[in-house]
Design brief:
CATH class of the largest domain: Mainly Beta
Radius of gyration: 43 Å
Strand content: 25-35%
Number of domains: 2
Helix content: 10-25%
Length: about 300
């Protein structure tokens, strides 16, 4: 956008004498003139007007574009027309520009050239290159792919284990540790399918999400319970219990988040009070299942 303003048919006249050094004048009709700043011709002189209030013009620059400053009589025409200087300030599509990348932007206004310079400065800052036009070492697509891959790799490398067992008989009124002879996966050597296979043992210290799922065979008597315990003690990290249901297997799930050190282990224990032995049933991918994943 050009710095200087223009208006169609912008012609009026001086309402009083304007001497050769005056920086103010009064015209017959100021409303017909362009918004400031604008240039106008009076006789053979071109002036640039910086302020306008009604018919009063002020902040006038005299003798613009090589024209002589002179006195002008009342009634002299004041014509807001295109001048060679105004045309020269217009940006040609074919004009060559040199953009400075040295100045950081302080706002969102400026000339076309200064705005382009601000953008060049920000591009240079983003790429970290010497010049804004230097090819970046990594494109945004490269960065996005790198971040996505790292996220996948980090998730894949997170210690995690999930194991499952077979049908097991649980004595009444006795907390019983469940055995797990098979694994879905074990990324950090946390489980052994034969030795102490009830345990998930921490190899890498941290915060773990631990979960277990069991199903008792159908029996309507007593209660059913599930718990997670650590290091063979009677201290439970979490306990879930409920009254037995009638006519269908009774399923229980439990989870807990806990800080564990290397060498700590957790076990899944169950309890029932049916008055006799009761089986934990095996359903693929659901019961009995036990697992933990490092989350922090």
């Amino acid at each position: 956008m050009s710095r200087l303003k223009a208006a169609n048919n912008a012609q009026t006249a001086l309402a009083a004498l304007m001497d050769a050094s005056a920086t103010t004048c009064t015209v017959v009709n100021g409303d017909i003139l362009p918004a400031v700043p604008f240039r106008a011709s009076i006789d053979n002189e071109i002036i640039e007007v910086g302020a306008k209030a009604g018919n009063d013009l002020s902040n006038i620059l005299r003798g613009q574009e090589g024209t002589p400053a002179a006195a002008h009589q009342s009634g002299s025409l004041v014509e807001g027309e295109m001048t060679a200087g105004m045309y020269g300030e217009l940006l040609s599509p074919d004009e060559s520009l040199t953009v400075s990348q040295a100045t950081a932007p302080t706002g969102n206004t400026g000339t076309i050239l200064s705005i382009l310079g601000y953008l060049a400065n920000r591009i240079k800052a983003i790429t970290g290159k010497t010049n804004w036009y230097d090819a970046p070492s990594k494109t945004l697509e490269d960065v996005n792919a790198h971040v996505a891959k790292n996220a996948i790799d980090a998730h894949a490398a997170m210690p995690s284990c999930r194991v499952y067992g077979v049908q097991q008989s649980i004595a009444t009124a006795t907390w019983t540790v469940l055995a797990f002879a098979s694994e879905h996966y074990d990324t950090d050597t946390m489980h052994d399918t034969s030795t102490n296979n009830s345990r998930l043992t921490v190899t890498t210290a941290g915060k773990y999400h631990i979960s277990g799922h069991v199903g008792f065979e159908a029996n309507a008597t007593g209660i059913r319970a599930i718990a997670i315990k650590t290091n063979g003690t009677s201290d439970f990290l979490a306990v879930q219990n409920a009254n037995a249901v009638s006519g269908a297997p009774h399923y229980l799930s439990i989870s807990a988040d806990y800080n564990l050190s290397a060498g700590d282990y957790v076990e899944l224990v169950v309890y029932q009070t049916s008055g006799g032995a009761l089986n934990i049933v095996r359903l693929a991918n659901y019961t009995p299942e036990f697992g933990m994943t490092k989350v922090g």
